[in-house]
Amino acid sequence: GRDILELQGMSVPEMELILDTAREMKNVIDRDIKKVPTLRGKSVVNLFFEPSTRTRTSFELAGKYLGADVVNITTSASSVVKGESLRDTLLTVEAMGVDVIVMRHEAEGSSHYAAKVVKPVIVNAGDGQHEHPTQGLLDMFSIKEKKGSIAGLKVAIIGDILHSRVARSNIWALLKLGAEVRVAGPRTLLPRDMDRMGVQVYDRVEPALEGADVVNILRIQKERQQKGLFPTAREYARLFGINRARLDLAKPDALVLHPGPMNRGLEIAPDVAYSDQSVIQEQVKNGLAIRMAILFLVLMGGTNVETSA
Ligand code: CP
Question: Which biological pathway (predicted)?
Fold first, then answer.
């Protein structure tokens, strides 16, 4: 149906429709129009079992700017703490008659499960190490906005690929849209099956950066590394951290992306994070546009964006 679960299964026309709609939504944001009645009478629940700043807030603002009612369920303050299951939590939210459930959960496939269990539209806001489709789409938007198109670009994804749902969503989208994708990180943070996905895999960062048009730097996910951080933070920063000298191996106009939150000084040096090449702050703004587009499309199913109040 209209669920947004993953980019692996999303067609290029679907992705393009979301990106084009987000372009219109960004024009709305840029004109500082923060209230339109488009989604009046619709309700959106943010159901987050893992922490979030960007995704949760931007879905909330996206819904509110478009006139929907938005409720946040932070599971640490919910009956999940009393042992209520995912299934029963979803059924409870459904019983309140909501139209969309935006869900982040630590288990891979949890959003597919939710889509089978309940009728409201499910939007995956990150399921374990599987996918984070709205992040992938906002990254495609950010690249396209600066580079014009994605086909033919050399994109280096650097860091903790193994634990990264952002890496997976980016890889699927970039490959479908015709980019050349390189991934680089320490062997301990590279999945074994990555070359079968159709990307070039490097266990050193320098060759992956050479001539790159886009450098997407991922967070080292300490919370998902059960056996301790290997390499250590100091070793990681020395061997893989993106500093000015390493960034200079990429094209002079290479874009720097990071989904956030950043470990500044670990995977990314401060002067790279805040350089002219960085679009990290713009990614956050684009995330709002993408989430407005997604809520609009899943709820209204149309292509005409109503922007007048
Ligand atoms: N990039 C991202 O998903 O950030 P949050 O975890 O803050 O939502």
Answer: Pyrimidine metabolism; UMP biosynthesis via de novo pathway; (S)-dihydroorotate from bicarbonate: step 2/3
Interface confidence, given as ipTM, is 0.97
pLDDT in tens, 126-181: 999 999 999 999 999 999 999 999 999 999 999 999 999 999 999 999 999 999 99
Question: Both tokens of residue 23?
Answer: 């372009």
At 140, which helix (H) or strand (E)? helix 133-147
State if residue 52 touches ligand 1 by the CB under 6 angstroms criterion: yes
277 close to ligand 1 (CB < 6 Angstrom): no
Question: pTM for the complete prediction?
Answer: 0.95
Ligand 1: atom nearest CA of 57 is: 8
Which SS3 state, helix, strand or coil, does residue 125 take?
strand
Q: Say what the pLDDT of residue 302 is.
A: 55
Angle among Cα 290, 218, 278 to the nearest 5 degrees reads: 65
Q: Out of 54, 154, 163, 168, which one is annotated catalytic?
A: 54
Instruction: Tell me, using a 6 A CB cutoff, whether residue 261 lines ligand 1.
Output: yes
CA distance 179 to 199: 10
CA atoms of 167 and 298, how far apart (whole Å): 24
**DSSP string across 169-203:** HHHHHHHHTT-EEEEE--GGGS-TTGGGGT-EEES
Q: Which residue has the tokens 């996905």?
A: 197
CA 284 to ligand 1 centroid distance, Å: 9
Distance 55 CA to ligand 1 centre (A): 5
**Nearest 5°: CA angle at 26, between 25 and 30?**
120
Q: Point out which residues pair with 71 in neighbouring strands.
A: 45
